[in-house]
Specification:
The chain is built from five helices and no strands. The protein is mostly helical. Helix 1 packs parallel to helix 5.
């Protein structure tokens, strides 16, 4: 295995260990809450809650990356799938949860950039950056989940 390959593999193992040690998304306190008024442009709450559940499932995939040669590829795919789920949720939720979905989209953009940098230039610094960005995604995802639970559960 080349030096770059070893760095990516070790980094992925560190990334997985960092995600796994949190026991899932972090429980973040959020003062934000779902809008109590619904408008005609907002899809039914049942649909929105189903989409929030899909986002939650995509977030969980990010937390269960296996340290293997396909980890970075898998991470890239998982980030793209999560972004797609968030886009669908945002589109149907209208202004509901806008702050939370916006924060999650921003965190995902940062993670996508960090993963791209890791692929182009595997290094300990790039791995650390990916780990930091995964933490931001986990926090933003937890904030969205907390808000969604107040309406959907």
């Amino acid at each position: 295995m080349s030096r770059a390959g070893k760095v990516v593999w070790i980094g992925t193992a560190i990334l997985v260990a960092g995600c796994s040690s949190s026991g899932g998304t972090t429980a973040a306190s959020s003062s934000a809450h779902a809008s109590s008024s619904a408008t005609s442009s907002v899809s039914s709450m049942s649909t929105i809650c189903d989409e929030a559940a899909a986002v939650r499932a995509s977030l969980q995939k990010l937390e269960h990356i296996n340290a293997s040669s396909g980890s970075i590829s898998g991470l890239t795919t998982d980030v793209q799938n999560l972004k797609s789920s968030v886009t669908t949720l945002t589109s149907n939720a209208g202004s509901q949860w806008h702050a939370q979905t916006s924060d999650l989209k921003s965190a995902l953009t940062g993670l996508q950039s960090a993963v791209t940098s890791l692929v182009k230039n595997p290094s300990v610094s790039a791995i650390t950056n990916v780990k930091t960005e995964v933490g931001k995604v986990a926090t933003a995802g937890s904030n969205l989940e907390t808000t969604a639970k107040s309406v959907c559960d």
